[in-house]
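Run log, item B.
One chain of 127 residues. Sequence copied directly from the ordering sheet:
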Amino acid sequence: MNNIRQITNFDLEGASEVTKQIDKGGDKGETISYQYIVITSSMLGSENVFKFGYCANNNQGINYPIFLVLNGVETEFQIGKTGMFEFQSETWKDVNDDDIEREATVSLSSVLVPKNMAFCIDYCYSV
């Protein structure tokens, strides 16, 4: 069975914080220290998140990357001018090599979002 949930900047009471060194707005010239809120798998309600969407709810938020721990590796994602980021499992074929259908899957265990920025996360997970 699958479930869908939403977390916003109003749902982070009691979450831990970490300081990250980031390139603000993706500009490699301006590195700053900024506080991030850690959204753990227990806060998400599952380690089986298979579809994830993040939306920065104001123009200021698009200048700050988010960090996702995917398959055990923390990775930085710049949000860009749309203010949105998403991923989901996908089925694909390498038609140049073979015609075997494969599935690309990602295991999300935590999310780091910039502190004091309005956002919305929608996600689906297996129960």
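Observations after the first pass:
- The first strand starts at residue 2 and ends at 8.
- The mean pLDDT is 88.
Flagged for discussion on Thursday.
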